[in-house]
Amino acid sequence: MTATDPAANKALSSFNEAALAIASELDSTKVLQLIVDRARQLVKARYAAIGVPDQNGLLVNFVHSGMSSEVVRSMPHLPRGEGLLGAIIEGRQSIRIPRISADSRSAGFPEGHPSMTSFLGVPVIGSGEVLGNLYLTDKVGAKNFSAADQRLVEMLAAHAAIAIQNASLYEQVERLAVLEERTRIGMDLHDGVIQSIYAVGLTLESIRMVLPEDAEESAQLLDSAVSGLNDAIRDIRNFILDLRPRRFSGDLQQGLARLVREFQANTMVPVSTTMPKQIEDLSTSKARAVFLTTQEALANIARHARAENVTLTLMRSDTAVTLVINDDGKGFDAQDENRQVGHGLANMQARAENLSGTFRLRSAPGQGTTITLRLPLDDE
After folding, report:
1. Partners of 312 in the beta sheet?
2. Beta pairing class for 45-53 and 119-126
3. pLDDT of residue 95
4. pLDDT in tens, 11-26
5. DSSP run (H or E) holding 139
6. Helices 28-43 and 6-23 sit at what angle, rounded to 10 degrees?
7. Which of 30, 36, 69, 249 is the most exposed place for a label (fewest CB within 10 A)?
8. Separation CA 275–CA 109 (nearest Å)
9. pTM confidence score
């Protein structure tokens, strides 16, 4: 086709329209859907899809166009990035073939997947990283996709890579904005609301002191009001604790000390801490696991335990680092799996297992709670 060919002009016009539509969207899910919808329209394909791989090349996100929801529900699973889809990611090259089943790289289709014949797949690459694979099947009105189709889809994939990265950056900025807003709200609650409630409590205490000695009912009402205000202060402090999540900076001793200080300031519950002097040479992954487990454990105690005392012990031997956190609070039924998930204990368990460690929980109603995280140091 020449530059003045009406068909070429129409294709370029459609491409520009598609590229502009994709570039104007900042929601990552909508971006992926726009990419596959526009790509399918652009080259007149019956089906289109884009897969986003994980570090191992397996698809963790799969967005499709052309398949009905009934067909999708009938399949036991969506494509996982094997066969031709995996070849696109691994080879970082476009693949255009007239018959999928005749290609040695094909891995077949999941049960219930519609039959497909011709295939055009291109990698979506941004900043040297494979962000996904965009592919189309069953060219309408032809046995195979053309070289011109391939060039259009490759151009669209280049625009798609920029759009995907832009959407990702936008979402990161939004998350940071949310964190900043949560921190501001937490400070406002602490500096404004809590101080106001505390002042009301002091006023009520003063009123009780000037009441006649025989005003027993009034004194009881005042006691109830003061107790309610103290409960409100405690609940707001716990809310602030949730509003101000902390990230691990790399220094475990500093990080744990900061978590303990903030916990004590927000709950008024003392924490007895024991830590070794030599802990800074712990690997980043293990130090981060200790920090995050401590963060979750203290947050759970603040929200649920009604504890009066907490102990935090960090021990290190030649073979392992061990974290033990104990509270004397109300405890809970450790056999209740739903309750464990609600406390974030499942996350602690998974974190330990990912580092070949162990996580143990001991708790019972009225007997407090003890968690123990042990991480081996064989690879240190």
Report:
1. 273, 325
2. unpaired
3. 92
4. 555 556 655 656 555 5
5. strand 129-139
6. 170
7. 69
8. 55
9. 0.43
